[in-house]
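Render SGNH hydrolase-type esterase domain-containing protein in 3D.
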Amino acid sequence: MSSTSYVDAIVLFGDSLTQTCASGSLYQRMAQHYERRLDVVNRGFSGYNTRWALPVFKRVIRSHQNQSIRLLTLWLGANDSVNQGESQHVPLEEYKANLRQFIQLVTDPKSDNYLKDVRVILITPPPVIGKFRPDRDTSNTQLYAQACLAVAEELSLPAVDMYTAILQAAGGDTDDQLSPYFYDGLHLTSEGYQVLFDRIMSVIEQQHPDLKGVEIPLAVPDWSDVARSHAE
């Protein structure tokens, strides 16, 4: 897929945890970090599980055929892991198979959605505060987080274990310990997104250092350089 755009992109793909653009969200933090260097594209779809998101994912990737996607974050599982019987529930093995298909779509040269230079980071679902979310159980969410990590290891991809990261940041798993990181038992506060952003930056630092913000030149020159060139 050749690029005709003057600036490359980062695509954040997922559910409502990705969708929000509020101050302190993943999107806001990434957009600020990469401003004028890479487009940060938010493709979060509230309520979606991996089954429903797959056909949307294909459309998203095709829509960027003229722009090189340098980094793709894939953050799904919070809805797949709802209690069995809920409409969003996806069985664990299907969840794993769907994650593999997402990755295959962008990494297989034979795929119509192949992205030659993309780097992929998988993100596990975070824990939940059960008393606020009767349709969910954090022990079940943990199984999906572990499954996401297993797929990442199987495919030799980096992953951010948000389930463990939040527990570590909170210092435990009680409702009181977790409450600063969630505003409704499922969706993250700014403090929760700070944990995620720091983990993503750590993965980039260790495994994809060329994607560090300071390593990427501005997409267009700084105004002072333009002024200087016109003065010479």
